[in-house]
Amino acid sequence: MVESIESRSRKLDVSNAIEAITINEFKSIIYDHKGAAFSKFLLLAVGIEYLGACLDDFPFDEPKESENRFNKSLKKLFPKSYDKFAKKSAKVYLFKEFRCPFVHQLRPGKKISLTHRLESKKEGTSHLHYIKNGGLVLVLEDLFDDFEKASKKLINDFKTGKVTKSGEFHTRALVNCDVHRRTYLTKTLKIRRPIIRILDRPPSLMPLPKARNPCLPAGRKSPNC
To answer: How do residues 82-106 score in pLDDT, each as one tens digit?
Structure first.
């Protein structure tokens, strides 16, 4: 069974990975999967930084580059309306108020108000606008639409040679697992690390791979958050 799985392994270059994962998979999760919008913001918090990582000349796992990459992504790839939120002096600094607390604590900062498009219309709020308590509104679908445009712009920059980031993504489709009469088709995404072999288990039971937090210097333990 292991041999049949490994035969389906393939490598994606960065440009193809952007299209397959940050555009197609993210879009399917955000638009097609029904349910609460809250956890879907995590994909974008991580995805924005990933796009920024494609813009520099460092290896993907270069430490202490998270802030630079997140801000560079907003400034270089997103609409101009995001520029002011990519500065430390901003009233709401998205790296500090959105990316960091969401990635490390699965919650937004106190200056961020998360919502989805239907709720936003009912409440009369708008994406990237402030509400009475001073919080900045992030509308899930609007944020993704801008993220998708940024991803496509980056793909075009690869095609024209403006961006030349190299690297390989190893992807593998695992076997279909019939668990409680449901079929799961799962994928693992690794960068220069061995692929974890997991058979006959639903995604919710998959063990997480141990990885060093790139935000911290080597040898330093992650905070208890």
So the answer is: 999 999 999 999 999 999 999 999 9
| Alpha carbons 128 and 74: distance in angstroms, whole number | 13
Strand spans (E) along the chain: 10-13, 112-115, 136-139, 168-173, 177-179, 182-184, 187-190
Count of CB atoms within 10 A of residue 125's CB? 17
CA atoms of 67 and 64, how far apart (whole Å):
8
Q: What whole-number distance in Å separates Cα of residue 124 and Cα of residue 159?
A: 40
Q: Is the distance from CB of 191 to CB of 61 less than 8 angstroms?
A: yes
Nearest to 203 by CA among 180, 187, 221: 187
Question: What's the pLDDT tens digit per position in 22-49?
Answer: 999 999 999 998 888 999 999 999 999 9
**CA–CA gap between residue 75 and residue 85 (Å, rounded):** 9
Amino acid 74 reads: L
Q: What is the largest CA-CA distance in the chain?
A: 59
Domain ranges of the chain: 2-203
Distance CA(99)–CA(47), nearest Å, equals 10
